[in-house]
Design goal:
The structure is a single chain. With about 90 residues, the protein is an alpha+beta fold. About 55% of the residues lie in helices and about 20% in strands. The protein has a two-stranded antiparallel ribbon. A hairpin with a 2-residue loop joins β1 and β2. It is globular.
Length: about 90
């Protein structure tokens, strides 16, 4: 997962969840990270969003952001830096 440039622009995209089309609004860096994460896991973005949707308790866009953040926190360099900071 590469470092991304900050782009606060929110983009609305269509996804299919369990056969139903819906739109999701996310900032461009979150869309990019979601695509990278899905690719790394051998999934389509739609499949990944379907999984996130099944486990969420709140807003879908927020659930996607949290999933992306959790994935980045699993990156070894992030974990090492967190141990140092404390």
């Amino acid at each position: 997962m590469d470092q991304v440039a900050f782009d606060p622009t929110v983009r609305k995209r269509s996804v299919t969840i369990a056969g139903h089309r819906t739109s999701v609004s996310l900032e461009e860096p979150f869309w990019d990270a979601l695509k990278d994460l899905a690719k790394a896991r051998g999934q389509s973005v739609n499949d990944m969003v379907t999984e996130i949707d099944a486990g969420r308790s709140g807003n879908l866009s927020s659930a996607i952001r949290i999933k992306v953040l959790e994935a980045y926190r699993e990156v070894p360099s992030y974990k090492e830096n967190r141990r140092r900071v404390g």
